[in-house]
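Note to self: the last two entries modelled the partners one at a time, which told us nothing about the interface. This time every component goes in together.
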Amino acid sequence: MACTKAEEAPGGGAAARNPVVICRCEDITLDEVRDLIASGYTTMDEIKRITRCGMGPCQGRTCRQLVLAEIAKATGKDMANISPPRFRPPAKPVRLGGAVAAAAPDVERGEGDGRE
Amino acid sequence: MAVNRRADAVVIGGGVVGASIAYHLARRGFGRIALVERSYLASGSTGRCGAGVRQQWGTRLNCLLARESVRMFERMEDELGYDRSIEFKQGGYLLLAYTDREMNQFVKNVELEQSLGIPASLLTPAEARAIVPMLNAGDVLCATYCPTDGHANPFHVTYAYVGAARRLGVEVMTFTEVKGIVVENGRVARVVCDRGVIDTGVVVNAAGPYSGLVARMAGVEIPFWAERHQILVTEPVEPVLRPMVMSFSRRIYCQQTPHGSFIMGMADPNEQPGFSTESSWKFLVEMAREITRVLPPVGDLKVVRQWAGLYDMTPDAHPILGATPVEGFYLACGFSGHGFMLAPVTGRLISEIICDEKPSIDITGLDLGRFERGELVVEPSVV
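The predicted structure of the combined assembly is written out below.
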């Protein structure tokens, strides 16, 4: 999937400070992402690890595509050729206490996590 | 793109240990240095670790190495000119004893630590609770606490070292995989990578869990295995846990990062050697069960992510540092789960050895030869 013109944020370059929030879980702005790419961090894995972008409760469902598109734009690579970070469990946040209850032998399967 | 070139030293492994070695070699003016990493920086064990930095150990050598590393972490941002924070937080380590054997070991450890100027002390369960009010101290026999232990952000520490190394001229070659090491007449001649060949007289093996494979490329066998350890992180909450909390008999550790999230891990005594970094549901359940016994309020936190990394294990849980029978081939591996915290001092010591200086800490006991001589330095206090 190639990045389209419509995905380009208004203002363009890093000079125009851009208040667009890319990662809502961790409050990461488009400018922060662009600054990192400009300073040589051109993999999603590195950007994720420096900014925590994509490490929040949504696991990057929103920001992943946006950051990959920014990297594609800056490096001229096709988005399909840029590695996304690995999807990691759990698919949805789960309470530690809930995990204990769910695994307890006297609790019927599925009931233990009811407080989620 | 072919990268045929010459370097005075090639450091294999773009984790925190390799980054620290490359930086320290460059600072000593060793010449042209290449840091070779097969993926992105800190993509292996460094970026997956529990991030703890502790000085409470059962052997003199581990204590000395950790004590010096803490001093280096304390001034790292200034020394390396890093424009972000390495998030070094000295909230202490609280180690919990649940068995008589553990308690006896803790008494010995604290005596050793204090003799080396490490400010650790033995605490009653009530004193431990004063430091961690959420602690279930019911079955705790005693605890030890060292206020200058803590944790730091492994990514930022690695990037800080690499940034400083780059400014000193180190060439950082990411997404470059080492395929072979050519040895001629008993000494290192070149490193063969998937993107070209580097002629060099000095190679440092800092490949973490893959160090055994890299050593074999140079014809050096090391007693060594990789072992998966799992870990998870919760949603962030306000600061409520100052120290890292750890128990050897329960095989767990747990800390709250400056970001607010809780990071915790647990060792599985039945884990088999191997390179798998898959996560398991079993780990999540067992981790949840143990941590909610030790720190009950943590049960209300939501886990947002779990992952796994590899320990680079040696038979005595001490690293292998220094020269090998192959001239010019050096080892900095086998950290057995504490490579991150020892990385600063390791970089300095390895660079001193390579530059033929007297190492600032005597680490002759940590050479590869100790296994053949039967002179293991067994560390009793590891998770």
